[in-house]
């Protein structure tokens, strides 16, 4: 039995790949209010983290996460930025985390953008939500892997109330579009 477990573990380890996250990338959220649209961005992901891929022939399991400061959000409007940070409870829960769970496939990275599906967990305001993500993945001439993920979430998914202004005259819709882009290098 121990030999079978060892062989299984050895097989998983031999099919693993490590990707180091480069210090470039971003997270942006897009939303609408009763009077306009807004975009808020965390413009730079500046921590070198590692994502581990375990290739199991039928799917790709991922291990790793990124952690982003809620206070790094910039909505290009001081009042909107402050309101978003307050709504996301930045003082109490200062980080958004994205935990990488899986990819449905690892396409041949030959410079062309490929679409793949994946799964992540988003941790926001101490609430964890598992989400299916649509990715675009490509590799450039310097062998950097570019991964862009998109997904729509609701404030209510994380037990948050969308912000309002002027006594409720201006309301933010519950739904936010999330997009993140990361750059990796295989090691």
From TrEMBL:
Coiled coil location: none
Pfam family membership, one: YceI
Stretches assigned to the Lipid/polyisoprenoid-binding YceI-like domain: 54-184
Alphabetical list of InterPro entries matching this protein: Lipid/polyisoprenoid-bd_YceI (IPR007372), TTHA0802/YceI-like_sf (IPR036761)
Domain of life: Bacteria
Protein name: Lipid/polyisoprenoid-binding YceI-like domain-containing protein
């Amino acid at each position: 039995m121990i030999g079978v477990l060892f062989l299984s573990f050895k097989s998983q380890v031999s099919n693993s790949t490590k990707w180091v996250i480069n210090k470039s990338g971003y997270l942006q959220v897009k939303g609408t209010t009763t009077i306009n649209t807004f975009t808020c961005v965390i413009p730079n992901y500046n921590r070198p983290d590692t994502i581990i891929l375990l290739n199991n022939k039928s799917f790709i399991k991922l291990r790793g996460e990124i952690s982003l400061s809620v206070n790094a959000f910039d909505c290009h409007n001081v009042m909107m930025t402050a309101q978003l940070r307050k709504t996301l409870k930045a003082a109490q829960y200062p980080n958004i985390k994205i935990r990488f769970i899986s990819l449905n496939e690892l396409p041949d990275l030959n410079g062309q953008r490929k679409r793949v599906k994946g799964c992540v967990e988003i941790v926001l305001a101490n609430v964890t939500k598992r989400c299916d993500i649509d990715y675009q993945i490509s590799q450039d001439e310097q062998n950097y892997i570019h991964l862009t993920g998109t997904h729509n979430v609701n404030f209510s998914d994380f037990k948050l109330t969308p912000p309002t202004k002027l006594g409720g005259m201006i309301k933010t819709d519950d739904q936010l579009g999330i997009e993140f882009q990361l750059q990796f290098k295989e090691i």
